[in-house]
Amino acid sequence: MGTQYVLCPHNCFRVEDMFNIIVKMDANQKAFLVKVRAAMQGYFGPDQKRIDHALQVSLYAEELLAYVDADPVITLAAAYLHDIGIPEAERKHGSSSGKWQEIEGPPIASEILADLDAEEAFTEQVVAIVASHHTRNGVDSPEFRVIWDADALVNFAEVLPSKSEAQIEMLLQQHMVTEPGFRIARRIFIKDTESHRRCLKGQRPAILP
Ligand SMILES: [Fe+2]
């Protein structure tokens, strides 16, 4: 704990603490999530791009948790681990496609959570999200929907700025599965200034001392 992240100089995503005041969790839950985050960072090792992506998704997930009634511990653990299958997908199949991620991620996520003494029922729910996070409506749960939209909010920053406003509107209508996710996406990709779009494009968390 104690590390601060600022994703946007316009202060849109300023998070004073990784687990801010909006999402209520007890000390044990926060401590557990810090361990999951550390395990994810350890697993990705020098692959800072993957780590940054997981952290960005977790920050959006946290924002969405203020509006969606989902379990914050399941949701944030899944945010950290959702892409954990990428290294194995690339190593075994030469591809990081969603299909291979969904196959290779679950055993690694299970192992990480088992090492952290997570309960079986909890692990099952996190792993189910990892196993279907590229499949629309892969799991019928609010935790899945938060991860789906949080992942989209990060990934769209790379593809949407080159599209017209009408195309963006249509894509967001089709893709987003929570109302706050849709609203945040519109705020970022349609209503905001060009400088804000530049800031979101290729962003990396600036880690403050
Ligand atoms: Fe992702």
Secondary-structure blueprint:
Layout: E1 4-6, H1 27-44, H2 48-65, H3 72-81, H4 86-93, H5 98-115, H6 120-130, H7 142-159, H8 165-175, H9 179-191, H10 194-200, E2 206-208
Antiparallel strand pairs: 1-2
Helix pairs in contact: 1-2, 1-3, 2-3, 2-7, 3-6, 3-7, 4-5, 5-6, 7-9, 8-9
This protein binds fe (ii) ion.
Fe (ii) ion binds at residues 53, 57, 82-83, 151.
Query: What is the molecular shape?
Result: globular
Find the structural class using helix and strand composition: mainly alpha
Largest sheet, in brief, is: 2 strands, antiparallel
Overall strand count: 2
Radius of gyration: 16 Å
Give a list of the ligands. Answer: fe (ii) ion
Strand content: under 5%
CATH architecture: Orthogonal Bundle
Poorly predicted runs of 5 or more residues: 1-18, 202-209
The total of helices stands at: 10
Report the helical percentage: 55-70%
The CATH superfamily turns out to be: Hypothetical protein af1432
Short descriptors:
disordered C terminus, two-stranded antiparallel sheet, mainly alpha, 10 helices, 3% strand, 209 residues, Hypothetical protein af1432, binds fe (ii) ion, disordered N terminus, single chain
Describe the structure.
The protein is mostly helical. It has helices spanning 27-44, 48-65, 72-81, 86-93, 98-115, 120-130, 142-159, 165-175, 179-191, 194-200; strands spanning 4-6, 206-208. The chain is globular and about 45 Å long. Bound molecules: fe (ii) ion (FE2). Fe (ii) ion (FE2) binds at residues 53, 57, 82-83, 151.
